[in-house]
């Protein structure tokens, strides 16, 4: 087994959790990564913890996505270098804005996309950022990104 050979390898734990998710066993994915964090948290650096938190966030599908938010926020606090962290959190905030109409959530989404764009200036992050600008009625700024 992958984790038997390298029990404290973040990449191995994340790969095993991913494999479990591919056969529709998200609960196993959660258990693997939660247990991995419990066992090896003291040995992991912030980047490794951020990777595990980011992966964990996408295996939870609870009401209101509270666990997703908690894990992504924890990864951001560790200055996650992973674009998935910021994309996931920005989408969380944007969904909250769409559901509740909260401009504060929209502004949080914008700021999170902005942070993500500093890590990776890719299409998806730019598009999300521009959508937030558009929703905030900052049409001229959004237009420069959309074009």
Structure description:
- The protein is an all-alpha fold and 147 residues long.
- Helices cover 76% and strands 0% of the residues.
- It has nine helices and no strands.
- The protein has helices at 2-5, 10-22, 26-40, 46-57, 66-77, 83-100, 103-119, 123-135, 139-146.
- α2 (10-22) packs antiparallel against α3 (26-40), α4 runs antiparallel to α5 (66-77) and α5 crosses α6 (83-100).
- The N and C termini lie far apart (49 Å).
Compact description:
It contains nine helices and no strands. The chain has 147 residues and is mostly helical.
Give the rounded overall mean pLDDT.
88
**Spans with pLDDT under 50 lasting ≥5 residues?**
none
Beta strand %? under 5%
Largest sheet: none
Shape: elongated
Order of helices and strands: HHHHHHHHH
Helix content: over 70%
**SS summary, helix count:** 9
Cα separation of the termini: 49 Å
Structural class: mainly alpha
- Let me know the number of strands: 0
Alpha carbon gyration radius? 17 Å
